[in-house]
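Hello Y.,

Per our agreement to keep a running log of every chain we model this quarter, I'm adding this entry. I've kept the format consistent with earlier entries: sequence first, then predicted structure.
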Amino acid sequence: MKIKSGRNYGNYSLSIVENRLTKIRNILGDLCTFISTYLLNPDMTQKIAILGGGYSSEWEISRKSAEVVYQHLDREKYEPYLVMVRKDEWYVLDGDQKKVLDLNYFGFLKNGKKIRFDIAFNAIHGDPGENGKLQGYMESKGIFHTSCSQSVSALTFNKWQCNTVLQKLGFTCAKSILLDENDKVNPKHIVSELGLPLFVKPNNAGSSFGVSKVKKITELETAIKTAFSEGSDIIMESFMDGTEVGCGVFRYKGEVTALTPTEIRSENEFFDYEAKYQGKAQEITPAEISKKMIQLIKNISTSVYQKIHARGIIRVDFIIVNDIPHIIEINSIPGLTAESIVPQQVRYDGIKLSTFFGMLLEEASH
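Predicted structure for the entry above:
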């Protein structure tokens, strides 16, 4: 019998293989979870390392995010520990005791017994939790974690590279210029390309540290110095006069879900640290935009999540100008403090934070 060959037959066969591989991966994921939970853990609760702190200016915010996760995790399912990360030490908070985290087996000693963590809940904003360094360690040790992969984390943390990739994928972003510390600054060229006002920000930083809004060409030099204080390269973006919104996105049991978008109205010149964390902004959920625009924001956010192969919870930030959403940033470790946007969206969508954090942990183990 002669078998017909051709593209359709090949695609059909490939589809069958992909479906079977997906089923096998899901079965193996369930098996790993079962072994970790019930065989290696006799008390039937998973030991969770909630990572906070980090090496950057965002240390305090990361600590607060980690504490919120710690407070809300279901104690019937999880045995959580806060793990603080600093450049000179990584330590576990066990009651009122501070214990060294052993990176060889990702655990610590408790009453002379080795306690190994089953999953890492990554709440570290900035270096090393958001730029791929921590993910590289986790992946090298085979440790489940709630964040994006090493490569995706590194991409989203680099604003310039991320915007370049997003534009190639067909998404709309702000016009920008990249500058490293060895480049010669030409203020007239920058202003002619981007106009005024414009934003100057570190290429690899978050929470608006080192960000300036430049209204006059004479302010550019100071803004550049401020941005370079946070990193070795900076990005300058054209100012967009529009509505700013943020949209959380996550995956659970294979389904990608976009949360209800939040509108951000800053009392300051822009959504800076004071606006984010000290009450100098209105964060309105749902955003006061049309239902059609809300759905468009959710659709774009979901598409971004899928196309860059994100994991865990991310937040996609936009500015809507003339009914066109422009992506300004992807935050792969969004804030989880009481004041942060994602917890607001989770609550609005009727999900308890304990349930939501549990969903992220469950998805991480797959």
